[in-house]
Amino acid sequence: MLASSEHIPVISLPTEDLKDPLNTPLMGSNSDPSGGFLPASRFSESQPLPAVCTDVTVIPEHEKQQLERTIANLEDEILQMRQKQRLLDERRRLALNSIIDIKGSIRVFCRVRPFLPTDRRKFHEPVTAELEKIAVKMPGGVKEFGFDRVFHKEASQEDVYAEVKPILRSALDGHNVCVLAYGQTGTGKTFTMDGVNDQPGIVPRALEELFSQSSLNELSSHTFYMSMVEVYLGNIRDLLAPKPTHKPHEVSSRCNLNIQSDPKGLIEIEGLTEVQISDLGKAKWWYNRGRRARATSWTHVNEASSRSHWWVLQATCVPSKSTI
Q1: Are 128 and 152 in contact (CB under 8 A)?
Q2: How many domains does one find in the chain?
Q3: Which single residue of 25, 33, 129, 155 has CA 20 to 30 Å from 190?
Q4: Residue 9 neighbours by CB under 8 Å, 6+ apart
Q5: Within a domain: residue 71?
Q6: Pfam families, from UniProt (predicted)?
């Protein structure tokens, strides 16, 4: 749209300066031989004048005011929705805390491992599992044990993770969360916690869940850190320690770390490597690196048994809160 002004300036010239062009001589006695006109070569050398056009969109005043009112109304709606989301988040936290208090802040699960072809069995079905109880057949009789939840041998990795998933939300809310697998060699601790490629365990699924939940919450930002440590032969080993410069091909691990307590009474490992995790890809890369540094050895029960106690520390920093 080409805009033109409503007021066109008018240039006034004195009438006496106007002469009849027909009576005006084109040449004087000392006129140029060309008759007062520029040569054709001069015309060809001259550059054409650029045409300057400006596109201006003129918004009527009443439309401008209407747009401003619409923007103000949308900003108010966004503010109200954020306040409503904060209220819902607070109610969700209270409800989750109530559920955890009802179920118990410390819950003990039992997962029955399926029998392998190499297992030796004295009984056809030595373990009978119910929802919250198992019965173990022994030479002297049957012993029963009670748990908060029992996973049958047919239970999948998804079934186990479904019971752990709610407490991960508590970690993002600023609470301390710990998932511990305990059992003798060959009972499936590593499979439950770590899993395999097509059946990931609790730790890989937890990493995905933390980043997924964090990306959905636009009201607060989270910063994630990761550390990996194991206790092997009485020593504390840092599984994410930098590789030595003289042996770049080897997986490094720093040993003989000291356990300290800070002024607040929290336990920390002095000198433990802590890396900041920006996304899920980085988290998986560091996690796989720490897994490769673990100590494994052959046993009568497991050819690649994990010969150490292993911790994956995931620190989640939220505004004015820090959890592990």
Answers
A1: no
A2: 3
A3: 129
A4: none
A5: yes
A6: Kinesin
pLDDT digits (tens, 9 = 90+) for 245-263: 655 555 455 666 888 887 8
Residues in the chain, total = 324
Residue 219 lies in a domain: yes
pTM of the full structure? 0.63
Binding site for ATP, residues? 183-190
Residues 6+ apart with CB under 8 A from 109: 147, 148, 149, 150, 151, 160, 163
Over residues 2-45, the pLDDT tens digits come to: 444 444 444 444 544 444 444 444 444 444 444 454 454 554 55
Sort 241 into a burial class: Cβ within 10 Å, 0-12 / 13-18 / 19+.
buried
Average pLDDT over all residues of the chain:
75
- Residue 253's pLDDT is what? 55
321 with 220, same domain: the answer is yes
| 71: containing domain | 65-105
- Same domain? For 204 and 265 the reply is yes
Question: How much helix, strand and coil, in percent to the nearest 5, is found in the chain?
Answer: 30, 20, 50
270 and 184 share one domain: yes
Handedness of CA 86, 92, 98, 104 (dihedral sign): negative
* Bridge partners, residue 313, by sequence: 227
Q: Are residues 229 and 129 in the same domain?
A: no
DSSP annotation of 17: G
* Strand residues in the chain grouped as ranges (E): 109-111, 127-129, 133-138, 141-146, 149-151, 223-232, 235-238, 258-261, 267-270, 275-277, 296-297, 305-306, 309-318, 321-323
The verdict on residue 254 lying in a domain is yes
The reply to whether 167 and 229 lie within a common domain is: yes
Sign of dihedral through CA atoms 69, 75, 78, 83?
A: negative
Is the domain of 95 the same as that of 113? Answer: no
Looking at the structure, tell me whether residues 100 and 111 fall in a common domain.
Answer: no
What gap in Å lies between CA 280 and CA 211, rounded to an integer? Answer: 6
Within a domain: 308: yes
Question: Do both 199 and 250 map to the same domain?
Answer: yes
Tell the burial category of 137 from Cβ atoms under 10 Å away from its Cβ (0-12, 13-18, 19+): middle
